[in-house]
Write a structure and sequence with these properties.
Pfam families: WD40 (PF00400). The protein is built from no helices and 20 strands. With 227 residues, the chain is mainly beta.
């Protein structure tokens, strides 16, 4: 079955620079772009609201029940009210670090930066930090397992109570993006065209299940729809 275009952003409402991230949350689409703007869209791509979130690139978006989080290479993570899109707080402001990735799960926000720091936040307050040693291009979390990736290897660590110490479990050849799908996780081969699917299981040593030759060119995104 083929796909057909059902909606398109108007020329007047579109971003004027490259779109860097998308987030679908509570029947709205959120987009971030290189110009620092975040736009909120209806599902038929009508503009609802636009904010100047950062002075430079918006790298990633994440959301909880009532908050939208944005990060940027300006070294900040910002929390916005989903109802009004007004700024609630700035979680961190460190111009020497680029905050590259956000991941929200189980009431906690995880952020990764270009210095190899994964910070853990709850109620907009930092409660932990893990130094994983290389730029964090993507993150997924499953229980105590933290998966991070740059462009050569996927690292798997087991986080310990206290928000600082961890046990390194395994490294797998691969690159971003990362994606979780139930009891499995997916990542790209170093060639950027092949998807690897592995178990999320310490007992099986995160055993490989299969690999899919997906595209002829580099894949920038893997998307999983939760049912």
């Amino acid at each position: 079955m083929g796909f057909s275009e059902s909606a398109r952003v108007s020329e007047e409402e579109r971003h004027l620079s490259d779109v860097t991230c998308l987030l679908l949350h509570q029947d709205k689409l959120y987009s971030g772009a290189d110009d620092g703007k975040v736009k909120v869209w209806s599902l038929d791509l009508k503009l609802i609201k636009e904010i100047d979130a950062h002075p430079v690139n918006v790298y990633c978006l994440a959301a909880s029940g009532d908050a939208l989080y944005t990060c940027s290479n300006d070294g900040t993570i910002k929390s916005w009210s989903l109802d009004t899109m007004e700024l609630r707080s700035t979680l961190i402001e460190n111009p020497s670090n680029e905050i590259m990735r956000l991941y929200f799960i189980d009431g906690k926000l995880y952020s990764g930066d270009d210095k190899g720091n994964v910070m853990v936040w709850q109620n907009d307050k930092q409660i932990g930090q893990y130094e994983v040693g290389e730029e964090v291009w993507d993150i997924i979390v499953n229980g105590n397992f933290l998966f991070t990736v740059r462009n050569l290897d996927v690292s798997i660590i087991e986080m310990k109570p206290g928000g600082k110490h961890y046990t390194f479990l395994q490294s797998l050849n691969g690159r971003s993006p990362l994606q979780q799908a139930g009891s499995k996780f997916c990542f790209m081969d170093r060639d950027g065209r092949t998807i690897h699917i592995h178990e999320i299981s310490k007992e099986s040593k995160f055993q490989a299940i299969t690999r899919i030759q997906a595209h002829e060119i580099w894949i920038p995104l893997i998307f999983h729809v939760y049912e």
